[in-house]
Amino acid sequence: MPSPSYHAVQPDMLDERSDWLRKQQRGSTRTKRIIYIGVAFLLAAIIAIAVGVTVSNNNKHKTSLSSTAGTVHSDPNDPSKFDKDPRLHRSFYGFAYTPLGAQMPSCGATQANVTEDIQLLSQLTPRIRIYGADCNQTALVLQAIQDTKVDMQVYLGIFVDDTDTVYTRQRDAVKKAIQDYGTDHIAGVTVGNEFMLNAVGDNGDATGAAGIKAATYLDNKIADFRSTLKSMNLAKTIPVGVADAGSYFNLQLLSAVDYGMANIHPWFALTTINDAAGWTYDFFQNTNVAQAANAPNHPDLYIAETGWPTKSSDAAHASNGAATASVANLQTFLDTFVCQSNANGTKYFFFEFFDEAWKDAQFGGVEGWWGIFDGNKKLKNVTIPNCVLS
Ligand SMILES: *[C@@H]1O[C@H](CO)[C@@H](O)[C@H](O)[C@H]1NC(C)=O
Ligand SMILES: *[C@@H]1O[C@H](CO)[C@@H](O)[C@H](O)[C@H]1NC(C)=O
Ligand SMILES: *[C@@H]1O[C@H](CO)[C@@H](O)[C@H](O)[C@H]1NC(C)=O
Ligand SMILES: *[C@@H]1O[C@H](CO)[C@@H](O)[C@H](O)[C@H]1NC(C)=O
């Protein structure tokens, strides 16, 4: 199907991005591992001190909310009691979320951190999506929702690469988490993230031979996960979907899923900030929604990621064609996309919750700077749109 492909616009930049995507899923180097271990020891010491202080404070003032290591004031004995930030509004259809320390092999994600993330996210949206199931992130997120008692649905993720063991260990982690936490807060399970993009390549055609081969591979994993759900009597309870770059779906793949999630980034389409919201909407409609209409099963379609970076770590990547990274431009995108999309029924996951230092360290440029919050969970200098979803 001839359709505008933002990946065809400027292959260099997209090389870089898909490079990032490929590397994102690979392990860290040994050096990185050593750094992580060092940081982990340091953090353990900091957390030990913080917990000590918090516990002693809490013993003194049993009823007051204590300040923990992070930014949310919360009762350390009951995470459902936490101060709401008046600057935040539950205006977003959804948010894309990757917990800190969710990459193999370093991992390191903690319950305290994920719980605080969920306290913040619940003030922005009723739903989130995650990308994989390594490093215990599925259980950490579901435990956090249970402990905070927030109204939150999550699209779990199973990251798929070309090795079966990577899929299998995550399938089993998701299965265990469903057994432990039930299905109340699970909106779906997304099998695969940008597998098609990685398999077909930047200028590849997802409807060609390589795309069919990649879709067949994914279809097998999707079928396997469906049979896992069936063995748990949950086949009709939990939708199974797939996420990929907006230009990388084909009819075979869409026909195999209950939902498709498409990454649609005006930044990578080199748009001006003023054109960004409209471009995103048009791309989604003309490419993904149109393609899904030809699938006999009529899968639900979502924008899996859209957002705007607030800076670049080097001057060379601060602009991408007509797109320029800045907090002011993130504000413009928030102001032109969020409430308008809610009003016209576009279902999207805003990218993303917070800045990810590991992406900056590994890839530089704008990759680490897409958060609404910075890496310390401080809200950036933006005004959150106020059009709270009912
Ligand atoms: C979360 O992790 C960060 C950085 O690793 C750490 O500084 C912070 O104390 C942690 N927060 C909580 C609530 O554990
Ligand atoms: C995973 O997280 C859950 C929830 O915090 C916890 O109960 C469980 O022990 C964790 N599992 C591992 C292997 O760390
Ligand atoms: C839906 O909202 C987007 C902005 O997010 C806008 O560009 C688009 O024109 C709107 N579509 C309709 C049909 O109102
Ligand atoms: C925050 O953004 C506003 C514009 O929206 C600007 O006037 C103000 O100077 C910014 N504050 C900081 C601390 O950057």
From TrEMBL:
<dbReference type="GO" id="GO:0042973">
    <property type="term" value="F:glucan endo-1,3-beta-D-glucosidase activity"/>
</dbReference>
<keyword id="KW-0119">Carbohydrate metabolism</keyword>
<dbReference type="Pfam" id="PF00332">
    <property type="entry name" value="Glyco_hydro_17"/>
</dbReference>
<protein>
    <recommendedName>
        <fullName>glucan endo-1,3-beta-D-glucosidase</fullName>
        <ecNumber>3.2.1.39</ecNumber>
    </recommendedName>
</protein>
<feature type="region of interest" description="Disordered">
    <location>
        <begin position="62"/>
        <end position="83"/>
    </location>
</feature>
<dbReference type="GO" id="GO:0005576">
    <property type="term" value="C:extracellular region"/>
</dbReference>
<feature type="transmembrane region" description="Helical">
    <location>
        <begin position="34"/>
        <end position="55"/>
    </location>
</feature>
<dbReference type="GO" id="GO:0005886">
    <property type="term" value="C:plasma membrane"/>
</dbReference>
<dbReference type="GO" id="GO:0009986">
    <property type="term" value="C:cell surface"/>
</dbReference>
<keyword id="KW-0732">Signal</keyword>
<keyword id="KW-0961">Cell wall biogenesis/degradation</keyword>
<keyword id="KW-0964">Secreted</keyword>
<comment type="function">
    <text>Glucanases play a role in cell expansion during growth, in cell-cell fusion during mating, and in spore release during sporulation. This enzyme may be involved in beta-glucan degradation. Active on laminarin and lichenan.</text>
</comment>
<dbReference type="InterPro" id="IPR000490">
    <property type="entry name" value="Glyco_hydro_17"/>
</dbReference>
<keyword id="KW-1133">Transmembrane helix</keyword>
<keyword id="KW-1003">Cell membrane</keyword>
<keyword id="KW-0325">Glycoprotein</keyword>
<dbReference type="GO" id="GO:0009277">
    <property type="term" value="C:fungal-type cell wall"/>
</dbReference>
<keyword id="KW-0812">Transmembrane</keyword>
<dbReference type="InterPro" id="IPR017853">
    <property type="entry name" value="GH"/>
</dbReference>
<dbReference type="InterPro" id="IPR050732">
    <property type="entry name" value="Beta-glucan_modifiers"/>
</dbReference>
<keyword id="KW-0378">Hydrolase</keyword>
<keyword id="KW-0472">Membrane</keyword>
<keyword id="KW-0624">Polysaccharide degradation</keyword>
<dbReference type="GO" id="GO:0000272">
    <property type="term" value="P:polysaccharide catabolic process"/>
</dbReference>
<dbReference type="GO" id="GO:0071555">
    <property type="term" value="P:cell wall organization"/>
</dbReference>
<keyword id="KW-0134">Cell wall</keyword>
<comment type="similarity">
    <text>Belongs to the glycosyl hydrolase 17 family.</text>
</comment>
